[in-house]
């Protein structure tokens, strides 16, 4: 039986907010502050922000575990990114944000590198003297940005889930950084996942594409009127971003214009060269002239935690925390960019991914792999003939095993290729745990 919907005194139909996590709570605040009627549902008996909502907005009705049939009673429902809904009246928080936003939006998606590029664009624009607010999937819900004075630019990181429920995006510049298998427990395959990502190009003024990623660069969503700018690690054509040799040194270039030597880029790895080029292309696509201080901001940016982060160098062994490597593509990029030989620590919840792409790379790069978590055996079946495999019951045991395997000149890379939720609250929790355990073990060894 359907829950009977309660109309307001003026017969307004409430908006249904589905999910009361961080995003859902931002939606509730946004709607209530507009004096709009709200009903909230969540599958959890006590979702994270329930007590705060009841204290601040006692008029909001909480109905646990409404069904898709119940959803049909509401004129509009706002679903959190993790909620899959087939309702035609479903929108997301980003859609609500776009209806009110008064500044141009630079939009960023991709399987890997989204947060890094979002922060790079933010730092580049600020170095150029622009007021910038960043949010979306990166941590600050988009709607919370509206409580601050309108900036010159909004920079939004957008997940495939957010893009599914966004209809009004008209970005000044937008990018799909790359496409590799992720969230295959949500999508029927790479094609459906890719289509969700490429919605970011709908109505964009400048479409930024990765010319070295055949899946990401091919999009029918880009209009003929859009400006197209590409980036890649090869020599670019005029008006494009890439890498070229100058006086025997690899350099970031914009067409024939020299921007900076690759040696000046603070973040290591080829994937981060792509991230820097993508960020510069997004800024150029927003019709902002790129100045020397802006290039300097791009090259000096040190990166975010848990993304190929060097946490220790001891007795000739480097320890790298890439806990944000939550899918195969991210781990492939981390392995490609790391100093060899490698000992790889991987495993967790694979989200239905195919680990075959790891095989040939591990064969040539990794002297050993230490596997943990729910899908350790699935990874092992893929790479068992490629390298020496060790199994560990948890993260601490895996680090102890890596300590015993590592020799001077080796790199221990923690890049799980999996989600963290079988053992940790989040990838941040997992990465912090890795850092703490490594620091403790290294200290014990050095002081022995």
Model description:
The chain has 448 residues and is of the alpha/beta class. Helix content is 33%, strand content 21%. It has 15 helices and 20 strands. The protein has a 6-stranded parallel beta sheet with strand order 7-8-6-9-10-11. It has a 6-stranded mixed beta sheet with strand order 15-16-20-17-18-19, sandwiched between helices. It has a 5-stranded parallel beta sheet with strand order 3-2-1-4-5. The N and C termini lie far apart (68 Å).
Topology of helices and strands:
Elements (H helix, E strand, L loop, with lengths): L14 E4 L3 H12 L4 E5 L7 H7 L4 E4 L3 H4 L5 E3 L10 E2 L1 H8 L4 E5 L4 H14 L4 E5 L16 E5 L2 H5 L8 E4 L13 H9 L7 E5 L3 H4 L9 E5 L9 E6 L2 E6 L2 E5 L8 H16 L6 H9 L8 E6 L2 E5 L6 H10 L4 E5 L9 H10 E6 L4 H8 L4 E4 L3 H11 L5 E4 L12 H21 L1
Parallel strand pairs: 1-2, 1-4, 2-3, 4-5, 6-8, 6-9, 7-8, 9-10, 10-11, 16-20, 17-18, 17-20, 18-19
Antiparallel strand pairs: 12-13, 13-14, 15-16
Helix pairs in contact: 5-9, 5-10, 11-12, 14-15
Summed over residues and divided by their number, the pLDDT gives a mean of 94
Number of DSSP helical runs: 15
Coarse shape: globular
The CATH class of the largest domain is identified as Alpha Beta
Question: In terms of structural class, how would the helical and strand content be classed?
Answer: alpha/beta
- Runs with pLDDT <50, length 5+? none
Sheet having the most strands: 6 strands, parallel
Helix content: 25-40%
The CATH superfamily of the largest domain is Mur-like, catalytic domain
Rg, alpha carbons: 23 Å
Number of domains: 3
What's the architecture of the largest domain, going by CATH?
3-Layer(aba) Sandwich
Task: Going across the biggest sheet, name each strand in turn.
Answer: 7-8-6-9-10-11
Query: How far apart, in Å, are the first and last alpha carbons?
Result: 68 Å
Q: How many extended strands? A: 20
User: What's the CATH topology label of the largest domain?
Assistant: UDP-N-acetylmuramoyl-L-alanine:D-glutamate ligase
Question: What portion of the residues fall into strands of 2 or more residues?
Answer: 15-25%
